[in-house]
Amino acid sequence: MTRSDSGPELVGENLLTDNPALYEHAFPDTGERNARFVRDLVERFAEPSGRRALLDVGCGTGRDAARLAASGYAVTAVDISERMIAYARAHRPGVRFEVGDARTVRTPVAVDVVTCLGSTLLHLHDDSDIVAALTSFARCLRPGGLLILEMRSGAFLLTERGRRELLAAESVRRVEWESRTYTARTALRLDLPEQLLRRQRAWTWDGCAAPIEERTAWRLLFPRELRYLLRLGGFETLALFDAPGPLTEPPWPGAGKLATDLVGDRLHVVARRVRS
Ligand SMILES: C[S@@+](CC[C@H](N)C(=O)[O-])C[C@H]1O[C@@H](n2cnc3c(N)ncnc32)[C@H](O)[C@@H]1O
Q1: I need a labelling partner for 12 at 20 to 30 A (CA). Which of 46, 67, 123, 257 fits?
Q2: What is the 206 CA–ligand 1 centroid distance (Å)?
Q3: How far apart are CA 167 and CA 161, in angstroms?
Q4: What stretches in the chain show pLDDT beneath 70?
């Protein structure tokens, strides 16, 4: 961790991504949820093959990558943040971690599965960047290989509940970490022309000289355009559903079938690389 006496540092645009130990503390491990989600979907949608190779894009601190490696996958994991990758290398043996950008990622050999979880794709705002990322994922996959995406759902903001929960009021969250209380005040707003959900967040803690202000944004992707962008990237969509998923309530493996009415706050995609 990079904590100095005066507290964590903001290097890029996100305090938590810049300080992986604080990130892990603020986002407690979902345990097996993400890994089980991936394994179950592969079981359900992939053609049978031997030992599987998997690429995790936007791996963060590498928790999911390490679990998937422990369950028998040969895992390569990339993240654009050098700090995340340094932390992952130090804490998660058994995975090949690389600094890399979703838009240009390559693997030395074709993999069977690409995962991109936790809204990583939505950090790319332009259509051209999203298609570049999807095209790169397709190049990393063997023909017929699977892409699994997990992210915030743009369609949720078309529901009354979505607007109420996301846009109504500033939220305040406190994180206790290493004898300090970190307070995050967060406001979300819609940027309609850019089709973005913009987040403004101020972090304070006892002894900080001034609040740390963050401005980040997620692309709002709607189902039809996502299917279209996937096609442009070289994928056929096999499943697009809002629940159950690793972050839904009830969580994966929820009972029953995959829900496709898309009223929930998460979006999950299984897509297959088109054979060419
Ligand atoms: C919310 S975290 C998700 C981490 C992890 N996949 C999870 O589900 O917990 C998003 C991650 O995406 C990474 N990221 C953002 N833009 C990226 C890009 N263009 N290429 C690769 N990683 C990116 C960030 O550094 C961050 O670690």
Answers
A1: 67
A2: 29
A3: 10
A4: 1-7, 50-51
